Amino acid sequence: MDRKTMPDIKTVTRLNLIQPEHAQLSNGLPVVIIPAGTEPVCRVDLVFDAGMRYQDFLFQSSLTNQMIPEGTAKLTGGMIAEEFEFYGSYFNISADRDEADFTIHSLEKHLEPVLSLMSEVLIHPAFPEEELNIIKANRIESMKVDDQRVESLARKEFNRLIFGKNHPYGVVGEIPDIEPVVSSMLADFHSRFYDQSHCRIMITGPNPDQYLPLIDRYFGQNWPLKNSAPVTRSGLPPLQTSDLKRSIISRPDAVQTALRIGKPLFSRLHPDFMGLSVVNTILGGYFGSRLMSNIREEKGYTYGISSFLLSLKDSGNFVIGSTVGAEVWEETVSECKKEINRLCNDKVPEQELELVRNYLTGQIQRSVDGPFLIADQLRGLWIHDLDLNYLSDFMKLINSITPEEIRTLAGKHLDPSNMAVVAAGPIKNPD
Amino acid sequence: MEFTNHRLDNGLRIIVNSDYSSPMVAMNILYDIGARDEDPTLTGFAHLFEHLMFGGSANIPDYDSPLQLAGGENNAFTNNDYTDYHLTIPYQNLETGFWLESDRMNELAFSQESLDVQKKVVIEEYRQRYLNQPYGDAWLLLKPLAYKVHPYLWPTIGKEIRHIEEARLSDVKNFFYSHYAPNNAILSLSGSIQPDEAFKMAEKWFGPIPSRVIKPRNLKPEPEQTGFRFQQVERPVPSPAIYLAWHMGDRFSREYYILDLLSDILSNGMSARLFLRLVKDRKLFSDIDAYMTGDRDPGLFVICGRIANGVTAEAGMQAIREEISRILNEPIEERELNKVKNRAESQFLFSNLNVQNKALNLSYFEWLGDAAMIGREMELIRSVTITEIKETAAKIFRDSNCSCLVYAKKEEN
Question: Of A128, A422, B188, B256, most Cβ neighbours within 10 A?
Answer without folding.
Answer: B188
